[in-house]
């Protein structure tokens, strides 16, 4: 039991040292600089002349970046030795671990295209050092359910207006409304208000009531739906700011009942060991010493 306690104490000291290193500003700026250097190396590889001339230097620089990323990940893992579950509760830690470890997976290491894409994902790790960028990325993730609902409603509106446009304008303007697909493509482009004036003028030559079709479509397709999408994004941004603010607050760790029980069991065992040691000590030894003292 004493050996187990010593091991736990050693892991706690190592985790504290790794945690202090991980939280040091110099360490964070060094990792950020290596991430930006890795992004620069990816850009240089798009120039065949530079790649062929400095291929060895680029490979060495890429290997150096990988070494730094691996050491950084080992430090961050070491900072959670005393609480490993906390490391995997943070999605950024899981993302960084997957990106860095992908360079050591045999199948991905030989696949040049996948490896380049995963190396490109390293640039996204800069979000860990930029709170505002982290808020935006969280907001994008939080807005996905609302965006899916928006796409369903938008597709329904586009389908209805495409069918109406095909019924009303197909005989007169087959280039834009000759089929459901062409009508949907035309109205999808009109959702950005691009070419709206030309379409309205062409519609007025067919019928003066076409203005009702285009005006209602612009109202629902451009203004209402776009404002709904903006509302979804703004709501997601508010939620992302709250999540980031909650993560920035100091975490008060609630002791695990199992750990508390283990500590109590350890204390009881130590007390029993002390009692056993005391029981093994002969009770007559102090009395003999006292009797010799009186006789003297």
Describe the structure.
The chain has 296 residues and is mainly α. It has 15 helices and no strands. It is elongated. The two termini are 46 Å apart.
Q: Mean pLDDT, as a whole number?
A: 78
- Helix-strand pattern, N to C? HHHHHHHHHHHHHHH
Low-confidence stretches: 292-296
In quaternary terms, these chains amount to: single chain
**N- to C-terminal separation?**
46 Å
Rg over C-alpha atoms, rounded to the nearest angstrom: 34 Å
DSSP, total strands: 0
Helix content: over 70%
Main β-sheet, in a few words? none
Helix and strand content put the structural class at mainly alpha
The total count of helices amounts to: 15
Determine the strand fraction and express it as a percent band: under 5%
> Which shape, going by the Cα principal axes?
elongated
Quick recap:
The chain contains 15 helices and no strands.
Topology (elements, then pairings):
Blueprint lengths: L1 H21 L2 H20 L3 H6 L1 H24 L5 H6 L1 H11 L4 H5 L1 H10 L9 H39 L4 H4 L2 H11 L5 H11 L3 H39 L8 H24 L3 H12 L1
Features:
disordered C terminus; 296 residues; elongated; 82% helix; 15 helices; mainly alpha
């Amino acid at each position: 039991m004493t050996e187990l306690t010593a091991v736990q104490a050693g892991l706690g000291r190592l985790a504290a040292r790794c945690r202090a290193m991980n939280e040091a500003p110099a360490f964070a700026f060094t990792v950020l600089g290596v991430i930006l250097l890795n992004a620069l190396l990816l850009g240089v590889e798009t120039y065949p002349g530079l790649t062929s001339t400095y291929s060895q230097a680029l490979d060495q620089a890429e290997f150096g970046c990988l070494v730094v990323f691996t050491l950084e990940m080992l430090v961050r893992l070491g900072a959670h030795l005393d609480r490993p579950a906390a490391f995997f509760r943070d999605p950024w830690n899981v993302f960084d671990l997957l990106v860095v470890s992908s360079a050591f997976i045999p199948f991905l290491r030989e696949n040049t295209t996948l490896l380049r894409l995963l190396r490109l994902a390293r640039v996204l790790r800069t979000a860990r050092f930029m709170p505002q960028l982290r808020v935006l990325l969280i907001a994008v993730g939080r807005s996905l359910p609302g965006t899916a609902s928006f796409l369903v409603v938008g597709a329904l509106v586009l389908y209805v207006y495409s069918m109406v446009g095909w019924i009303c304008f197909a005989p007169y303007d087959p280039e834009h409304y000759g089929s459901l697909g062409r009508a949907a493509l035309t109205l999808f482009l009109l959702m950005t208000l691009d070419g709206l004036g030309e379409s309205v003028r062409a519609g007025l030559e067919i019928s003066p009531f076409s203005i009702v079709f285009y005006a209602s479509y612009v109202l629902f397709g451009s203004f209402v739906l776009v404002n709904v999408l903006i509302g979804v994004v703004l709501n997601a941004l508010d939620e992302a700011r709250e999540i980031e603010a909650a993560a920035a607050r100091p975490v008060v760790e609630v002791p695990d009942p199992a750990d508390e029980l283990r500590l109590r069991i350890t204390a009881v065992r130590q007390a029993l060991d002390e009692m056993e040691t005391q029981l093994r000590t002969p009770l007559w030894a102090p009395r003999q010493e006292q009797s010799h003292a009186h006789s003297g």
